[in-house]
Every structure is written in C-alpha cells, then in structure tokens.
Design a protein that fits this description.
Layout lengths: L2 H18 L9 H6 L7 E3 L2 H6 E10 L5 E9 L5 E10 L5 E5 L3 E5 L4 E7 L7 E8 L2
Parallel strand pairs: 1-8
Antiparallel strand pairs: 2-3, 3-7, 4-5, 4-6, 4-8
C-alpha cells in the first residue's frame, strides 16, 4: 500500500468510531408514543387540571348484536396526587354529528398512578362514533 493509504485507514476508523459517540436520543414515554389519545376526536380533556393529570391508556370499541356501540376506556391518573374527575360520553353518528345521546357526568376518584376502566353503551343503533369528555371534579 502507498504510505497515504496506510495512514488513512486508522484515520477513517477513528472517524467512524467518533460518529458512534453522541447524545442518546430523548426518551419518550410509551404512553405518549403509543397510547396517547388525549384531545382527539375520541377523548377531550376539557380543562387544564384534566390535561395535566389524566391519560387514556387503552380504548376498546365494539358493536353488539343489536348494532349498538359500546366502549371501554382506561383512564389513568398520571399525577402525584389523588384526583377527582368527571367523565361522560357523547355518542355521534357515522358523520360525527351528535345523536342527542349523552350520558350523565360520572364522578371518578383515582389515586396517584391508578387506572380505572369506564364503560359506556349507546341505547340506540345510530351511534357509530363517540367523544369521551373528562373534566376536573373540583
């Protein structure tokens, strides 16, 4: 090998190894990357307290044999304190318009880090979509 090639090989190796050293990528919690449903068409966190403390970690929808929409949502307290919140479901037709069916507000108390499943079922077969609304209970 010519002398320039011999010296270029170690230099290239050093540059390649130096390129592997760097800041690690920022860690994104699994919740924000995979399960985050906050403030979407399906979940609305209506006030700042709910936005800070509530996460939806799972959501299941199904149509029963009569064609009525049912859902189960897992709501989690991601804050350091016990929270009281209110939850309701607004059912919507296939176009997204409210069907006129809204469940009453339901109180939900969660300890720090606790998750609770809330269940809702439409009473008619017009509902194809829904909006789960969550607000602070205090």
């Amino acid at each position: 090998m010519p002398p320039t090639t011999k010296s270029a090989v170690p230099l290239l190796l050093v540059l390649l190894l130096a390129g592997c050293q760097g800041e690690p990528a920022a860690f994104l919690p699994e919740e924000s990357a995979r399960y985050s449903l906050e403030n979407t068409e399906k979940l609305q966190l209506l006030d700042r307290a709910a936005q800070r403390a509530v996460a939806c970690t799972g959501l299941q929808e199904r149509l029963d044999a009569a064609g009525r929409l049912g859902l189960v949502a897992n709501l989690r307290n991601r804050g350091p304190e016990e929270i009281t919140m209110q939850v309701r479901c607004v059912f919507r037709d296939a176009a997204g318009a409210a069907t006129g069916e809204e469940t009453p507000w339901r109180a939900l108390n969660l300890d720090p880090g606790a998750t609770e499943a809330v269940h809702y079922s439409a009473t008619n077969n017009l509902a194809r979509k829904f909006t789960l609304q969550v607000r602070s209970g205090k």
